[in-house]
């Protein structure tokens, strides 16, 4: 981890995350998560499904967020296989972008972050070149980001899978499951 990245993650994690319920607390939670995301300086632009599916589906207090490739304003931040055309560092950044896109889809679906309790599960599909085995290290880019943005409720279960191909020649695709408070 670079010193700049470490400092940014420390800054983001410095503010406590309130997990209590109530309008004031949900507003404070929304503001805190939004401020932590804004501190990253990544403009997510607009996010819409790329096909005949929903970005987010809700069932009994759980949101299933569709897989997101790492794109900003419709342009992939990297293309190709990790370990060949894409470096580990580029892939970790791409994982952050995909995780932020998932969180943005949650914000659009709910209207804000006030009801978000935690990300319970994340799956990262990494397009790998032959001989590349640092799949979990790629996923760490997204996990570290979620841990910082949602601290202390940022810990989550995770699966990292190496694959042969992904939509649009993306280096990875990430989906997540999010627990929310009742409306």
Automatic annotation (TrEMBL):
InterPro entries on file: Endoribo_LPSP/chorism_mut-like, RutC-like_sf, YjgF/YER057c/UK114
A Pfam family annotated for this UniProt entry: Ribonuc_L-PSP
Gene3D superfamilies xref list: RutC-like
Source taxon at top rank: Bacteria
Protein name: Uncharacterized protein
Organism of derivation: Caulobacter segnis
